[in-house]
């Protein structure tokens, strides 16, 4: 038997339960979970909002950001071996749909998500497809787990060239903080971060932001203008999902700039498309997940090069039994990445 943190029934809350040890089937591997970090998605599932009710059928073990050591191999597994430390691509693709065949498996029509549609990593053991295991030997397990959300930021940043450009990151949660560090490591000429929490803005400075500004300060847009010589920023990485952040981003983006949209908006956003986008030549990129697998390769290259240190983002490491405290930290917004250690 093993401990696991699960959504056992519809409604708010989670429960620490005992479950049988899983066994790997054909093409699968069994992992001993070394680190599993909490994502905003997990908090939505914990609170049981409309999105959660539409996407998860209890009972289900949560957790899709994880690192684990391979303990057993199913039949047909040839790439990873026992003892490997691996990160986990949380999206399980069918590899047969049009999107998968054209190389966009992260947009698979029949996508399943570990910890939402199949059991996840808030447990002592988990079984995953070998295709979802990303060898990460030599890295801190907490950093290995962070590769999953960090990959979102890598995808958002590199959808177009970023080197030598001025960059604004709106929203300094863990993915936004990764984006700040990625932009600096990739050679952006200026990195500005905005948020509403002083705690997060200080973390953004630690990650290398040249300016970290309160998004609610009336002087923020003027300061962005001054920092860019009155031209505005060339790249926006929108990580907050806050309508006001996007509205502000559109006002401070230079003509011909681009905006990568990763944050999920909980409400409709009104935009003056003619004046703010079309006539300004602004390019909007919808970003979902990570490209499989070139984003993972870029992510690992950044980490292994020494150009990017994400350890300041990992602010709390707790035992699985301390999960109520972990979720309280996430709700408080006074934490970076919170890691559970099963």
Sheet of most strands: 7 strands, mixed
**What do we call the CATH topology of the largest domain?**
Quinone Oxidoreductase, Chain A, domain 1
Helix content: 25-40%
Question: Superfamily at the CATH H level of the largest domain?
Answer: Medium-chain alcohol dehydrogenases, catalytic domain
Q: SSE order in H/E notation?
A: EEEHHEEEEHEEEHEHEHEHEHEHEHEHE
Number of domains: 2
Choose one word for the global shape.
Answer: globular
- Given helix and strand content, the structural type is alpha/beta
**CATH C-level class of the largest domain:** Alpha Beta
Structure description:
α4 packs across α5. The chain has two domains: 2-149 and 290-341, Alpha-Beta Complex (Quinone Oxidoreductase, Chain A, domain 1); 160-286, Rossmann fold, CATH 3.40.50.720. Helices cover 30% and strands 27% of the residues. It is built from eleven helices and 18 strands. It has helices spanning 40-47, 50-55, 98-101, 141-158, 174-185, 198-206, 220-227, 243-252, 273-278, 294-305, 323-332, and strands at 2-7, 15-19, 28-37, 60-61, 65-73, 85-88, 91-92, 112-113, 125-129, 133-135, 166-170, 190-195, 211-214, 233-238, 253-261, 283-286, 314-319, 337-341. The radius of gyration is 20 Å and the shape is globular. It has 342 residues and is an alpha/beta fold. It starts with a strand and ends with a strand.
